[in-house]
Design brief:
This protein is of the alpha+beta class. Helices cover about 50% and strands about 15% of the residues. The protein folds into 2 domains: about 5-80, Winged helix-like DNA-binding domain superfamily/Winged helix DNA-binding domain (Arc Repressor Mutant, subunit A); about 95-180, Winged helix-like DNA-binding domain superfamily/Winged helix DNA-binding domain (Arc Repressor Mutant, subunit A, Orthogonal Bundle), CATH 1.10.10. Pfam families: SMC_ScpB.
Length: about 190
């Protein structure tokens, strides 16, 4: 089979995936469709060629490696324009309560709903439900405490949504806290 033909199939797989697609998923799809035994190096070479193609072309898209997978995203120079569209799509927005809940889950995962509510100080049923519906969080088993409450963690969609490769890329809490939000004097 011609090499460009395989590249086009890989490009189609990445393009059609709603979230990032892993190298293993690409290999599995190719091997199944073509009854072949393509290896990681072969597929990675084609992915790099696709990445180079989009970097050289006058294209609005770029191929990026995020969340241990590959996804087409718009290039940075178009982010502000695309962001305006996103701002106008209110059903895609997360409420302040949902963002607070998501931040707590991201930094303290796995975490129970009761623990989330203790941190927030309010009922979080609706926020947790909305985040599950948007697939930004997942149920991650049950705690080994009385009643065996459900544990929540961030999902692969969370990683894609925020463009993170891994959780270590989350901002450190010390970088987020502003001087004006602190009470009292800082002692060094």
């Amino acid at each position: 089979m011609p090499e460009t033909h395989i590249s086009r199939h890989i490009e189609a797989l990445i393009f059609s995936s709603v979230q990032s697609i892993s190298l293993q998923e690409v290999i599995l799809a190719l091997n199944t469709v073509f009854s072949a035994e393509y290896d990681e190096i072969f597929v990675l070479d084609h992915i790099e060629a696709i990445r180079d193609k989009y970097n050289l072309e006058d294209s609005i898209l770029q191929l990026v490696h995020i969340n241990n997978g590959y996804q087409f995203l718009t290039k940075k120079e178009y982010h502000e324009t695309v962001n305006q569209l996103q701002l106008h799509r209110s059903k895609k927005k997360l409420s302040q309560a949902a963002m607070e809940t998501l931040a707590i889950i991201a930094y303290r995962q796995p975490i129970t709903k009761l623990e989330i509510e203790q941190i927030r100080g309010v009922n979080s049923d609706y926020s947790v439900q909305r985040l599950l519906e948007k697939e930004l969080i997942t149920m991650d088993g049950k705690a080994e405490t009385p009643g065996r409450p459900i544990l929540y963690s961030t999902s692969p969609m969370f990683m894609d949504y925020f463009g993170l490769q891994n959780l270590s890329q989350l901002p450190q809490l010390k970088d987020i806290v502003k001087e004006e939000n602190t009470v009292g004097e800082t002692v060094e």
